[in-house]
Amino acid sequence: MSGYDHALKYWYPVAMADELDTGQSKHTKLLNTDIVVSRSNDERLDVNAAGKSLAVQHAYGHAWTTFSDTPYPLFAIPESSEQERRFVPCGVVRVSCSPLRAVENFLDIAHFPFVHTGVLGSEPHTEVYKYDVKIDETVDEVFATNIKFFQPQASKSAEGGIETEYIYRVPAPMAAVLYKTCPPKPECLDVIALFVQPLDEETCDVWPWMALYDDTSSMADLIQFQQLIFVQDRSILENQMPRKLPIDPGHEIPTKADLTSIAYRRWLKKRGAYYGAFERS
Amino acid sequence: MSTEPIGLARDLAPKGVMRAQVGQTDLAIWRSTNGVVSAWENRCPHRGMRLSHGFVRGESLACAYHGWHYDCSGKCNYIPAHPELEPPSTIRPNIYSVVEQAGILWVNTVADAKPVSLPNDLIALRSITLDCNLPSAIDAFKAAAKVDAALFNGTVTELSQHPKILSLESPSGANGIVILFQQPHPKSVVAHLLAKDVYQTNELVAVSRWCESVRHKAEQQ
User: Fold this and answer.
1) Interface predicted TM-score of the whole assembly (ipTM), two decimals
2) What is the CATH number of the domain that holds A231?
3) Phi and psi angles of residue B25, each rounded to the nearest 5 degrees, phi first
4) For a 10 Å CB count at each end of chain A, is N or C smaller?
5) Residue span of the structural domain in which A116 resides
């Protein structure tokens, strides 16, 4: 099965659930194919490709679609049903890079002091301490746990620098979910997810989505914070060569801090998720 | 690939980083705090980030993505995520030969850089990019020199036989300029201008403006 065939089996976000007024439509792309997203009534969005209607489901603030008649189920995010949380779809950032590079960057903490300086990291707090990574075979997802990192402004709700705890989860090749310390509610974890819409192998639309405990920040401020972070990431992502992600060892040299990235690349290779990879399956 | 002029030495100040293209190779060129120039493949071995986006710390170039430091020999000497770690000596970008001569930075991506020998009464004036092919650029400079011969005391002589160098002089040899051509892309030419050291400042400004007018003509063809 080629990387393209493998990619066809998944659900992808193509719009925010509240995007478009009734009667409006927009043209976009998914896996090299032109698609049209439209709203025929108030309830739901429709997606069409070459006149054919595609399956649509609404979840986590977005409309998701798939080309497959027998897709893998959309992964679960149980926190999405916790009604005390603020659910924040953050809009879209288009990036000229492989969708896999966008996910891998989201799983990386060592860049915080250099790319998100004064926000998610700062010198001299650059050390990445030992953390744990595993593939959970029961759900076939990548998990990284016990990550701790000093952050000057961990979130909109943080007051001053704190040692932040992170847990990463990769439930699908083009999605990642982060659980991190919630400054106003230390017993809980904020959820920040990255949903990636692959336009083609070297272009993606990134849809960040958050489920937070934060009763004070305005919606605009929460979105602004996340957009700032991702635009900083874009300056890196559009300057990595090659644009596609090398998933075989040898092209790029990792270090201990890259355990999550190493596991992610191995996991992609094992499943044949070569769409957006530098190598061909 | 021969030795290519990629820029003026004075345009790369200490702690500066620039980007250049030689043949198929994308390069990061940088100057350390103490003035040492290096020319490397524009790619961090760690995660492929363009090193031309990096920043200079002392005698090292640091990658913009994770701050990995590389010394002037190309060796990785610091990984901020693991401050106590001695980085393996195998971590290094591809490095190329670069020399400074006649105020120009010369790079060779396959062998030692051997600059073209030039008269020693020249000063490097500026670099200018033309969106055209190499023959159009050279023809435009030749044609304009004949029309605007005042810059060369009224009559202009072409001296160089080198295919990518144009030397324009007055018959006495007292006034003149040398243009080094470099072609980073098929439809883009960089012209590095050197002028005889007899020109006054206002005359150098005139030469510089003349080159801009040549660029307009070359790009309109």
Assistant:
1) 0.96
2) 3.90.380.10
3) -95, 125
4) N
5) 78-271
